[in-house]
Amino acid sequence: MVSYFPYIFLFLSVSFKGFALSNEAAQIACNQLASTLGTTLIENSTGPDFNNTVSAPRNLFNTQINFSPACIVLAQEASDVQVAMKTIFQHEVDYAVLAGGHSANEGWDNVNGGILISFERMDQVSYDPQRDTITIQPGVRWGPAAVALEPQGVAPVGGRVDDVGTGLLLGGGLSFLSQAHGFSADNFVELDVVLVNGSMVTATAVNEYADLFRALKGGANRFGIVTRYEVQAIHTGKSEEKTWFGGSITYPEDSFEDLARAISHFVHDNVDPRAVHLSNFARVGLTTTATATLFYNGSTLPQDIFGEFLSIPSLSSNLTSLSYLDIALALAGTSPLGQGTLLGAKALIGGSSSSDDSTDQLYLNTLHLWKNLSDSFSPSEIAISTLDFTPVPISQISYGRPESGRGGNAIDPPLVGYNQIVIGNILPVGVKVVSEEIEDAVRLFLEQAPSSPGIPLFINECDSNQEVFATYGGYDFLKATYAKYDPTRFNIRHTNGPIGL
Ligand SMILES: Cc1cc2nc3c(=O)[nH]c(=O)nc-3n(C[C@H](O)[C@H](O)[C@H](O)COP(=O)(O)OP(=O)(O)OC[C@H]3O[C@@H](n4cnc5c(N)ncnc54)[C@H](O)[C@@H]3O)c2cc1C
């Protein structure tokens, strides 16, 4: 305690200048935290890490250009988060949590005048062969996690892009391993959770916090702060084990409609969980192409599963034998940092390739609406415009059902294969505001593009105005569980996140 004193003094003496933008309660809370945890963990705007932390979110609109926290908490241990939340709760302060910083929604991972809890110093991942589980600290990113675990031949069901972080798990999570192992969150074994009042609980599928455990699989940032994820280890093999085959095929615009049909059919017809698919239509500058990313856990891409994708006229492809590590890093570097981003989610069931299914028309409508939207922007307004489809097959959904013995998830879709759809619009480098025209055009797309009734939207890819929770099979459960764990609605009153609870 004595050794902290000079730092506390320094902090208090500069804090009143640094806190000009923050409210009084936040200033008091920050000063209290600085005296409890010390100024290596609690920094205001004069601290050495402050600028980097506040600029870390991927979306420019979540960085310093819009946000100035009263102070940041650079947590090193779960107990630091407990102390922070106790203080935040006591003083009724606004707060946000920052993990990998990939949220597209403004204010979901940064805060103005409140307290930002950053996990950048809690970035360890380890494998326990006895329990056959992986322990993930919340500051971990999926690329480094895959690299660190490869020597042991295991991997978590994580994300598909290397620099995305663990916030992905709380939204459910879509992985290249999901077809065979469920949503990423279906692989939770144990979670340490700091509740809004600062108390800590450990939740599992079978203990007294089983409801919280389930709610954290899709409930995003509303149910507490997770300080430790223990997840099932998947035995994916080492980098020399080329047990997969695949890569990407790039298509010209003339092939777009055929690709849209193939996307619809794949999620309806395929029942093999070893088959993985992700398709992306993209306008970058003035060039519009589409890419299907296809993997199979085997020595080739079987014709009866991937034949439609393989027969569509294409521009190029890079199909080859791959290790799981190759797959985990296949999309590395595809996520531009520091540019303004807008996302929005839709979901469509698939149609059969063996009948004249009107479902295909919904895919074509979605494609045409996106094409009109992206064509309406000049490259100086929107640098990159995308439309992505990720299949959620029945094999994946079944892992989130209570019968699976994993405690269920909150998303709880019906047992029918569907595609999660996301549109993304990324502004050019340096553009700091979204025009009303762009916002209106994206809003109109989200109103007009079809979604299949009863199919859940994906919170990790939504626009903040979308009522995603209301589309979950577990919506009533989610509302009741939220009321139980946060009876004063502190989280909703003090942090931004999904609406509808
Ligand atoms: C380029 C790109 C690729 C993507 N690829 C995928 C993909 O393959 N699969 C997929 O499912 N999603 C994907 N997403 C969506 C991504 O999963 C979400 O944006 C996710 O929320 C990002 O988590 P994060 O930790 O990186 O971001 P952050 O912005 O740090 O966190 C996201 C949200 O979770 C909250 N949060 C984070 N950690 C905690 C915690 N420990 N406790 C409580 N709340 C917490 C944050 O406060 C914030 O509201 C992608 C997004 C981008 C931009």
Describe the structure in your own words:
It comes from Tetrapyrgos nigripes. Residues 65-236 form the FAD-binding PCMH-type domain. Keywords: FAD, Flavoprotein, Oxidoreductase, Signal. Belongs to the oxygen-dependent FAD-linked oxidoreductase family. This is FAD-binding PCMH-type domain-containing protein. With 501 residues, the chain is an alpha+beta fold. It has three domains: 2-118, 2-Layer Sandwich (Uridine Diphospho-n-acetylenolpyruvylglucosamine Reductase, domain 2); 125-237 and 477-487, Uridine Diphospho-n-acetylenolpyruvylglucosamine Reductase, domain 3, CATH 3.30.465; 244-472, 3-Layer(aba) Sandwich (Vanillyl-alcohol Oxidase, Chain A, domain 3), CATH 3.40.462. The chain is 30% helix and 20% strand. The protein is built from 16 helices and 17 strands. Strands 10, 11, 12, 13, 14, 15, 16 and 17 form an eight-stranded antiparallel β-sheet that branches. Helix 1 packs antiparallel against helix 2 (24-37) and helix 2 packs antiparallel against helix 4 (78-91). It is globular, with a radius of gyration of 23 Å. 54% of the residues are buried. The model is unreliable at 1-21 (pLDDT under 50). Residues 58, 96-103, 108-109, 138, 159-161, 164-168, 170-171, 173-174, 220-221, 225-226, 335, 460-461, 497 line the site of flavin-adenine dinucleotide (FAD).
CATH architecture of the largest domain: 3-Layer(aba) Sandwich
The class by helix and strand makeup works out as alpha+beta
Radius of gyration, rounded? 23 Å
**Uncertain runs:** 1-21
CATH class type of the largest domain: Alpha Beta
CATH topology descriptor of the largest domain? Vanillyl-alcohol Oxidase, Chain A, domain 3
Output mean pLDDT: 94
In DSSP terms (H or I, runs of 4 or more residues), the helix count works out at: 16
Instruction: Tally the beta strands.
Output: 17
